[in-house]
Design a protein that fits this description.
The protein is an alpha/beta fold and about 375 residues long. Helices cover about 35% and strands about 25% of the residues. The strands form four sheets. The chain has an eight-stranded mixed beta sheet, with helices on both faces. A four-stranded antiparallel beta sheet has the order 10-12-8-13, covered by helices on one side. A two-stranded antiparallel ribbon has the order 7-14.
Length: about 375
């Protein structure tokens, strides 16, 4: 099945909805108006069940097929925006200063709504489909919170699927791979404590800034000399702060950063080595270093069967030649990983063309991708839940 005619005809309405959500972005779990918009549309479509308030503002709706009993598969879209000032200059740019849909979650939400509209009308499948609208994907733990709220068990979901737009992939194309497709996300803070003093008398102080500079260099060897070059590990320091004056050596210096990997065991390795490097370097200068290490999203791992289903569904819509079955994994993270830990399934990239990068102030979702994404969801449901 190519892009469905009824879905193509729905493009203008879908774009209108997407631009409305784009103009009214909400952050984290505070997606109250977005969730209300979703619930209102789902009620209009005549879905069988709606549960609102999962993990505070999440929504799950159930549509039962007309072809008899069968399993329940979940389709997930994220709803939250980012704390970024928009610079697109579009007529539908954000109306709220300092917030924008810079990751395309407005498009994700509307594509799943479009699929809900079609599936509720046709019901050309057995079993049921659970439509999952998730808050707080952007670092606030919405995926984990929804799983912990038990919606998978309440709705009897056996498989779960996600989709994310990807700049750099042509509109009308998809990318996916079996196994890890997005990285785990960890964060760290290192507090280096030395001895403050006069900037003109450094020999009387223990300078935490110089020590922190040595630690930053040492952290780079964890990857370059401590891990297999064919394995994926990123350790990036993104913040360093110390001191308030030109003539004072401060007592402390703080380093913060992120760790990304596609191999779960490397999270343990990275934590152990970061602490060892920081403490040993600090100790040799007469200072001390304390590490605080936090684990967030796990690796996003596609199951073999889920990958095959997603590949088949995408090929049904755009043709096999426009589906890259061996797309390179991305070292960004995705909290859909928590849902894939709870149930097998797959995460796929949908082309957004030559747009600005995700999380960039100039980014915008390409509305021409809406019918493609909607048709993919419909194809996935009708092939996975075939008679």
């Amino acid at each position: 099945m190519p892009v469905l005619n009824s879905v193509a005809e729905f493009r203008a309405t879908a774009a209108e909805w997407r631009r409305h959500l784009h103009q009214n972005p909400e952050l984290d779990f505070g997606v109250h108006e977005t969730a209300a918009f979703v619930v209102e549309r789902l009620r209009d479509f005549g879905v069988d069940e709606i549960e609102f308030g999962i993990a505070r503002t999440g929504v799950v709706a159930l549509i039962r097929g007309r072809l008899g009993d069968g399993p329940v598969i979940g389709l997930r879209a994220d709803m939250d925006a980012l704390p970024i000032h928009e610079a697109t200059g579009k007529a539908w740019a954000s109306r709220i200063d300092g917030r924008m849909h810079a990751c395309g979650h407005d498009g994700h939400t509307v594509m799943l709504l479009g699929a809900a509209r079609h599936l509720a009308e046709t019901r050309n499948f057995r079993g049921a489909v659970a439509l999952i609208f998730q808050p707080a994907e952007e670092g606030a733990g919405g995926g984990r919170a929804m799983v912990e709220d038990g919606f998978m068990e309440r709705f009897g979901i056996t498989e779960v699927y996600g989709m994310h737009n990807m700049p750099g992939i042509d509109v009308g194309s998809f990318g996916i791979c079996d196994g890890p497709i997005m990285a785990a996300l960890d964060e760290f803070d290192i507090l280096v404590t030395g001895k403050g003093g006069h900037a003109g008398l450094p020999h009387q102080a223990i300078d935490p800034i110089i020590i922190s500079a040595q630690i930053l260099l040492g952290l780079q060897t964890i990857v370059s000399r401590g891990t297999d070059p064919l394995q994926s590990l990123v350790i990036t320091a993104t913040k360093i702060h110390a001191g308030e004056a030109y003539n004072i050596i401060p007592t402390t210096c703080e380093i913060a950063g992120t760790v990304r990997t596609l191999i779960p065991a490397l999270r343990d390795f990275a934590e152990t080595r970061i602490e060892a490097v920081a403490q040993s370097i600090a100790e040799c200068y007469g200072a001390r270093a304390e590490l605080r290490y936090r684990r967030h999203d796990p690796v996003t791992v596609n199951s073999p069967a889920g990958t095959r289903r997603a590949l088949a569904a995408a090929a049904n819509v755009v043709g096999a030649d426009k589906v890259n079955a061996q797309v390179r994994p991305v070292m960004a993270s995705e909290d859909f990983a928590f849902m894939l830990e709870a149930r097998p399934g797959a995460f796929i990239f949908l082309g957004n063309g030559p747009s600005a990068a995700l999380h960039n102030p100039a980014y915008d979702f390409d509305d021409d991708a809406l019918p493609v994404g909607i048709s993919y969801w419909v194809s996935l449901v009708e092939t996975a839940l075939a008679e």
